[in-house]
Design goal:
alpha/beta; 6-stranded mixed β-sheet; two-stranded antiparallel sheet; 56% helix; 10% strand; elongated
Length: 550
């Protein structure tokens, strides 16, 4: 028997995929196969060379050559060697005939077959992503999503989305949307998603792109959306794919956008957003990947949305799999928020909140967490502090009626609600917290506070020197597990921190009968707005039932 060293050059001349560490076993299999055909060791090399040339010239491997190659491939990989061996020549022929590869290109393609299998089976890469990666490794071959899919299909590893998994993900997203956005309108929700995108490494202005894509227009304080829904449905489906596979998500057709899973997803869009036909076929028929040239082909009225779709998907495509998957989740949640806002208003709040209703709400908030994602707590605090810091007395407020998830950074607020008095050089901010106030929550707020203050400094310096300002932040919570340290020094400025329970804070406020105007403005009207989740109105209405029964 020839040694492994003697057989190695001959083995490598076959250009077969062989796992590291398996060359010795493959060399033995090669020698055994040749000897079984009556070929002596001295004839090994010329025999193999002749077989390789004959296969390349005729396109048809001899029985001897097939026997040798299959024997080697079966030992080339412990897990996938046998299925690859069984389809090697059939797959080679498909690559030549169906994908127009040369004999050499098809052979080079198949030399990567175990890497292709690993990327699909172990790393969750899609065919499009594998093709994109291998094109960088071996540009001679001309890898394509279709050729990779052909190879994975041959070894029964072709990726695909199952309807049940899409349904499960849709339900999970639907259940997560409320916690993610609470009472946010679309503009605020877009801002939240854009902040997440920046933290995850998305390059470019995601906020502008999503605003264009959803066609959000805020006029006279009212938010209107004229979203081009087919583009959103395309985005939604691509972001569903991104949860399951490391996919080049500008590639539109790998995961059957005309299949059952995709059609089910599109059918979930409410009647107010319903569109006729399949969004992929109507807008990207015969388009393998969308890019700016695809966007430019659209009508002028559709161009901004099409360009925004390309921008979002292209930006996500170059992110790491973990970051892309997380950003895709937030984009899906945003689309669920859009669907929620298009639903009919349910569980309306009473037309008037009089003294008994106000007392019921105050008692509920004072007792403990209302399970409204902090919404009722913040709306009540809006109403109470607005009366303590009147505009007529020189106070300028920020954050009144803001969504509970709105970032303080965007408006340079020092808390959920922030009041500034230029004449007395005073700022008082309030931070509402449903539940128990902990050190972790306080530390997180102080960390954000440092960022906000850096943006606020220039404005304050324009009025007076920083050390002349008196700044106080009041945490209002149901329980006080920890009290904040009395002072926080930021850029040399002393900021006083204090904490109080809702019950004790309410004790310093006017009685319910004197709060009707504030509750109308800051509680009833916001709770009745379209952006308010009906689940929150259900809770509030249940709290009001005893008062309404009187």
């Amino acid at each position: 028997m020839a040694s492994a060293g003697q057989l190695r050059p001959l083995l490598r001349s076959l250009l077969l995929p062989i796992r590291s560490g398996q060359e010795c076993a493959c060399g033995i299999a090669l020698a055994q196969a040749l000897k079984a055909k009556g070929i002596s060791f001295h004839e090994f090399s010329p025999s193999i060379a002749n077989e390789i040339d004959a296969w390349q010239e005729s396109g048809l491997p001899s029985d001897l050559f097939k026997t040798v190659v299959v024997a080697v491939l079966k030992r080339a990989d412990n897990s996938h060697g046998v299925p690859v061996a069984n389809c090697y020549f059939t797959l080679h022929r498909k690559l030549v005939e169906a994908h127009l590869m040369s004999h050499f290109q098809a052979t080079a393609f198949l030399s990567h077959i175990f890497l292709i299998v690993d990327l699909a089976a172990d790393e969750g890469l899609s065919s499009a992503q594998i093709a994109k990666l291998l094109a960088e490794i071996d540009p001679r071959v001309g890898f394509s999503r279709q050729s990779i899919a052909t190879a994975l299909q041959a070894v029964k590893l072709e990726p695909g989305l199952e309807l049940k998994n899409v349904q499960r993900l849709f339900t999970r997203d639907q259940n997560s949307e409320l916690k993610a956005f609470a009472d946010a309108d679309l503009a605020t929700a877009i801002q939240l998603v854009s902040d997440k995108a920046s933290r995850l490494g998305f390059e470019g202005n995601m906020e502008m792109a999503l605003t264009d894509l959803l066609r959000v227009n805020i006029s006279a304080g009212q938010e209107e959306t004229f979203a081009y829904v087919p583009y959103l449905q395309i985005l939604h489906y691509q972001c569903v794919i991104a949860d399951a596979f490391d996919h080049a998500i500008t590639d539109l057709y790998e995961f059957a956008p005309r299949g059952r899973a995709a059609l089910w997803l599109f059918d979930q869009y409410p009647p107010a957003l319903a569109t006729a036909g399949n969004p992929f076929l109507n807008n990207a028929k015969s388009v393998e990947r969308i890019d700016e040239s695809w966007a430019r082909s659209k009508k002028p009225s559709e161009l901004p949305g099409a360009s925004a779709l390309v921008f979002v998907l292209s930006g996500m495509e170059v992110m790491s799999f973990a970051a892309r998957r997380e950003l895709a989740r937030w984009v899906r949640l945003l689309l669920h928020r859009l669907m929620r806002l298009k639903e009919l208003l349910a569980d309306p709040i009473p037309a008037v909140l009089a003294s008994p209703e106000i007392k019921s709400i105050l008692d509920a908030v004072a007792t403990g967490n209302t399970c409204t994602f902090g919404i009722l707590e913040q709306r009540v605090l809006d109403a109470l502090v607005s009366g303590k810091h009147l505009q007529a007395a020189g106070w300028r407020g920020r954050g009144l009626k803001d969504s509970v998830n709105a970032t303080n950074l965007s408006q340079r607020k020092l808390g959920d609600i922030d009041f500034q008095h230029a004449a007395s050089l005073e700022i008082v901010a309030y931070e509402a917290h449903g539940g128990e106030l902990s050190t972790v929550y306080i530390d997180e707020h102080v960390r954000t506070l440092r960022k906000v203050f850096k943006r606020r400094k220039e404005e304050l310096i324009g009025i007076a020197e920083l050390d002349r300002w008196k700044i106080r932040i009041v945490f209002v919570a149901h329980k006080l597990a920890d009290h904040p340290r009395p002072l926080e020094i930021i850029d040399g400025v002393k900021i006083e921190l204090s904490a109080v329970t809702f019950r004790d804070f309410f004790a310093t406020c006017p009685p319910p009968g004197a709060l009707e105007a504030e509750f109308e403005e800051y509680v009833r009207l916001p709770l009745s707005a379209k952006r308010m989740p009906h689940e929150v109105r259900q809770v509030v209405n249940s709290l009001l039932q005893p008062a309404l029964a009187i």
